[in-house]
């Protein structure tokens, strides 16, 4: 499907990898397979283990236990400089005492590549990131975005089968970040290398990735495409981390046909039930909720009353925050063509029970979001 | 980079106020003029005017081979002291950046404590350590080796001076090293550099400004050393300051002493000017956290 270059990427297998610092488990039995040529994003809040995973793959951190294969070979105990893996850092890490050209040539010089060949490859790498005219500049003379592009060129110039990127756009402003995201995507397509990308920004993860691994507290919560994570979150944490969501909590009653939730006197139901003992919550995406004035015919099977707490005009539509009877907040996105509502107005929220995801409650899912 | 660069803050300027920051340097400037500028001027004048106006003192200096030998030796000893200081201070300063705050405090104290002991006392301690029947030679002999001649030799002078001057090397080196982003070394590793290669291609070049700063301070201070070479050295390790002392205090030849001082000063300036292009680094400030 993709006009992708031949597959030159390495596969990565993490098998129950753990990393402990004293009693703190930075990684707690992480298993993940990354396919050759795949763009895999490790997504999670800070301290969730995503950067530790990257450092383990790069060889900057040893594992406490577990196995790590790159291209089918175990690299546990192999020092970073022998792994032949490109790494792009959030802080660029360009050598300030070398020109852009010498920075990019550095890995080639280390590999003893002759000057002719070196020049050619440096020029090619710099062209790929559109920095061909800057070879004689020093890093301090470049903007952050330019420096990061040079860093990217330096990490791909030696054709590593695997490129690791640790929040490479974290220090840049939004416009530049969005543009560079597309650049990174293009470069990934052109190279066919396996990319592992660490970020805490779920939008960035959705833009870039083939698949996303969501990290929380040293474990992987779920691995899947952006669509899978959005439509079928496996846990409440994933549901809340990816995209906007409304979480309904209440008194739960399950029977053979479905689950009913009573929230401050109002009951909503979904035609599904949750296996196991855990307390169920309902998770609803903002576009699955319909907002309307009370007392009219119901569009969906479920309705909840609330008050408009915030109305945000987004250009392509509007986003409302609706305060529900139990004090929680629902997020609703409605198209521009629909009715508009003002602050403090009493409204009803309707949804189809089939659109509600039933998930086991997890009190940590909310606190880790900040 | 350019006037359009939004990261460059524009400082509001009011006409006629531009000189104000310079006023802050006034106390230091007055002090310098009083204790350096004026005496220096008198030295230059005396070197040209005593006993009568003319270049006779300089003619005398360059006419006596012993003066030139001592001048050359002064620079040689100072260079050796600088080399010894760099070699001792570099790993020490690196250790200071690598250890935790508590151990760093201990290391800093170890550097500073000698500062609180007078130079004469320290030099006399070296006499005890280095003399022919001193601690080092006793240890060597009891271990079955021949004794070595340390006192009244150039080696002894270099050892003693290096010890006194070591803090002036360690402190600037440490201040530069603590600013080096160690993640750059990590980046070099990821690009395929084994640890020694990463050190020589990334860490060492970035630490050079500290080496240069420390080396200049140590070298210049060493040129003017008087007590240590006088106590630890012999007649074959006399440095220029001792000759100046003899001329001024024993022979009351203020003009000749002044001429020697001026020659030393000018030679130092020439050497620094020659070294400056090597030491100048356009991007010294980059690569800082």
Q: Can you walk through the features of this model?
A:
The complex is a heterodimer of chains A (370) and B (289). Chain A has helices at residues 50-58, 100-110, 115-128, 144-156, 174-191, 202-208, 226-231, 236-241, 364-367; strands at residues 12-21, 24-34, 39-43, 65-70, 73-74, 86-88, 162-166, 194-199, 211-216, 219-224, 246-248, 251-254, 259-263, 266-270, 280-284, 290-292, 302-313, 317-324, 329-335, 346-351, 357-360. Chain A is of the alpha+beta class and 370 residues long. Chain A folds into two domains: 12-239, Rossmann fold (3-Layer(aba) Sandwich); 244-367, Nucleic acid-binding proteins (OB fold (Dihydrolipoamide Acetyltransferase, E2P)), CATH 2.40.50.140. In chain A, the strands form five sheets. Chain A has a six-stranded mixed beta sheet with strand order 6-7-8-3-9-10, sandwiched between helices. In chain A, α2 crosses α3 (115-128), α2 packs parallel to α4 (144-156) and α3 (115-128) packs across α4 (144-156). Chain B has 289 residues and is an all-alpha fold. Chain B has a domain at 63-239: MetI-like (MetI-like fold, Orthogonal Bundle). Helices cover 72% and strands 0% of the residues of chain B. The model of chain B is unreliable at 1-8 and 283-289 (pLDDT under 50). The interface between A and B is medium-sized, with 30 and 26 residues.
> If helices are DSSP runs of H or I spanning 4 or more residues, what is the number of helices of chain B?
13
Strand order of the largest sheet of chain A: 6-7-8-3-9-10
The count of helical stretches of chain A stands at 9
The profile of the biggest β sheet of chain A is: 6 strands, mixed
CATH superfamily of the largest domain in chain A, by name, is: P-loop containing nucleotide triphosphate hydrolases
What's the pLDDT, averaged over the residues of chain A? 89
CATH superfamily of the domain at 63-239 in chain B: MetI-like
What class do helices, strands and sheet pairing of chain B give?
Answer: mainly alpha
